[in-house]
Amino acid sequence: MDVACYSAPGAGEALEKSTISRRDLRPNDCLIKIRWAGICHSDIHTVNGDWPHDNFPMTPGHEIIGEVTEVGTEVQNFRPGDVVGIGCLVDSCLDCDACREGDENYCESGSTGTYNAPDRLDGTITQGGYSTHIVCREEFLVRIPKAFADLESDAAAAATPLLCAGITTYSPLKHWDVGEGSRVAVVGMGGLGHVAVKLAAAMGADVTVLSHSKSKEADGLAFGASRYVATKEEGWHKPFRASFDLIINTVSAPLDPAPFISTLARGGTMVMLGLPPEKMQISAGALIGKRRSVAGSAIGGIRETQEMIDFCAAHGITAEAEVIPAEEINTAYQRVLDSDVRYRFVIDVNTL
Ligand code: NAP
Ligand code: ZN
Questions:
Q1: pTM
Q2: 301: Cβ below 6 Å to ligand 1?
């Protein structure tokens, strides 16, 4: 079926209203009518060609909440009317060690992204959530908890970014055992960063925001941080030498890692979530002295995404969403690039 969407005609070009085709349901597929779609900085990297590819025109969007309207003949767990979420993945082999362990995001044959990825069966390129409908196999749907399931509510809109920003920050917080008293720093308080602050605080951590400016200090403290530091101030890192167990780095631009690494405690880890195209230079000496690590983490598996959104519902956590009509997508992109987002744009898909 043909459905309305916004798509980028080429690298770096403005998105425009268009149409894409959604496949007929396979036996294990559901058709979802999309209600909300978040704008992730990864959408912007992909549209701008920061991560080069040839799949234009392309419809981004991997933070999706909507309602199941039709199910394939073999669907087991979902029915029309169910409110579901889709994050960054729509398929994987489900058979390798990673998939069996719930790490579909690290599928050994490559997981299938919600957009800009070849479909595993027919090779067509997947198209994302800036559209009125999407087809997805049921194993990659997340059930939206009651607290967020009224699709017309602000809560549903604000929960939408959890499908990427939420799981991408929840997964490393869990992997590195954040809990009561953990000392966590969050670098960059944008879409991912502000959710990371809320999640880490809810897990009992002592949270420090490392933002490039002071402008979001009151918000950072309100999200649960104990302190807020502006990293553009010379020598900001000196009082924090060897003091964080985990740094969650969400910055989308290249940053000198040295001052951040100096704030890692013995055995501490800085996990990179931001994906600027530039390479990063790290001194071995800065790591060796205190057995520090620099690591990376990519989104999270489906089971963990369900766990994350249930955790958020239980703790009253959502993103701070600024809802926009579809026609404002290009303005929103520029505002994200200008760090002028408080803290995630969410498209009202009914305006499409
Ligand atoms: P975002 O909303 O734009 O937030 C990024 C934040 O980084 C900004 O709010 C800003 O925070 C800081 N920042 C941006 N430019 C900066 C600069 N030049 N110098 C210093 N700080 C700067 O983006 P997002 O959606 O959270 O995504 C962040 C990054 O994570 C992107 O690269 C995205 O592609 C990546 N990502 C990765 C995964 C994964 O699986 N690993 C998943 C989703 C997204 P302050 O103003 O507070 O400094
Ligand atoms: Zn994302």
A1: 0.98
A2: no
